[in-house]
Every structure is written in C-alpha cells, then in structure tokens.
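Hey, resending since the last one bounced:
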Amino acid sequence: MTVDSLVIRDEQPADADAVESILQAAFADHPHSQQTEHLIVRRLREAGELVLPQVAVLDDTIVGYATFSAVQLSPQHDGWYGLGPVAVAPAFQGHRIGSTLIDSGLKALKAMGAAGGVVLGEPQFYRRFGFERGFGVTFDGAPPEYFMAQAFRGTVPSAAVSYHPAFFGAD
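The structure tokens again:
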C-alpha cells in the first residue's frame, strides 16, 4: 500500500459520520480504551470545542482523524491544548498516517499562537513529536508516565490539567 496521495485537510461537517466510524474501529480493541472516543468527539463537536480537527484522505476516502481541544491549567495558564483523539482506520495503520496528522495539527497549533500542548498516550510514540514527561504538569487519574507536555513558547508550567467535560460523559 502506498500513501503518496494522502491529503490532510480540515474536517468538514459532512465528514462526521466517517470520522465516528474510524474512531470506533480504531479503538475497538485498544487495551486502554473504554471505546468512547467517538462519543467524546461528538460531544466536543456539539459544544463547539473541537480545535483544528483534521482528516486524512486517501483516494477520496477518510482514513484518519486528529483533533485538539482547549485544556485548563491550574494555576491558570492560557493557550494550552490537548491532543486527541487521534485515530487511523485499522487497515491503514502502520503507514505514518497518524504521525502525519499529528505533525500537521501541531504545526497549525503553533501557527495560531498556542502556548503548548498535552497528550495522554504511549510515551515512545508521542516523544517523536516533542512531548516529554516529567514536567510539573499533571492530570489526575492518569499514570504520570503516560501524561506528557510540550511548550511552544516559554516553558511547561507546574500545573494541574483539566479536560473539557465532554471527555467524561458530560457537555
């Protein structure tokens, strides 16, 4: 399989069903998932809280998705965003589609003047994008080794991170 013709573009309203299907398929057998990623994105979309949602398109078919959402830091630090969910259709995993989506999203996030980003995920994967663990940024309930941050300007603050209620089944 070749992904030379892969196109990354902003999500459009008509993409919602395809995105939801990809999220469900990509996380169906993931050992650390509660299989609610599609619901999280749906609630974030309904609340108008998706930031830079992008899709990966191959031969007119959506094969991947990534988005950000604003996070709150306490004490207050503005301009921070959480990466995720990120998903690639199972048949297309292992071809750097997710990495391409993440690179594109981080570039756009930096261009809009964001202060930094956080991610909850596999350290060996997310380190390649500049995320590091061991800063003073924390997320209650997550193993600290899986919660990482990177500053786009300044330094990573010592702060507790809160995600939008959509991540927890509320709006």
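The domain at 7-168 is CATH 3.40.630.30 (Aminopeptidase).

Sorry for the duplicate.
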